[in-house]
Write a structure and sequence with these properties.
Elements: E1 2-5, H1 11-20, E2 22-25, E3 28-31, H2 35-48, E4 55-60, E5 67-72, E6 78-82, E7 85-89
Organism: Thiosulfatimonas sediminis
Protein name: Type I-E CRISPR-associated endoribonuclease Cas2
Pfam family, one: Cas_Cas2CT1978
Length: about 100
Amino acid sequence: MLVVLANDLPPAVRGRMKLWFVEPKPNVFVSGIKDSVAKKVVDYLYEHCPAESGLMIFRRIAETPGYEIRGLGDHNRQIIEISGLQLVIEKQIETL
């Protein structure tokens, strides 16, 4: 399974995504493609999307916790890893 969240996609990429993904909300794409194909799609997205696309990609993997998170260009969210678990921080709290 692959879930892609984006701020904005180039029209050509968006058109290709709509071939294999359902888009339940604008710029949210979900597909049950095989894991090997999902890796190729992620590589395609990284190759053809500029940083302004603001990608957040959730890909199923066979290892615990069962998913991998990758991001590109979204400055409002940060991916962190705690004890091997990837998490998304939406807003940093600044300490005084």
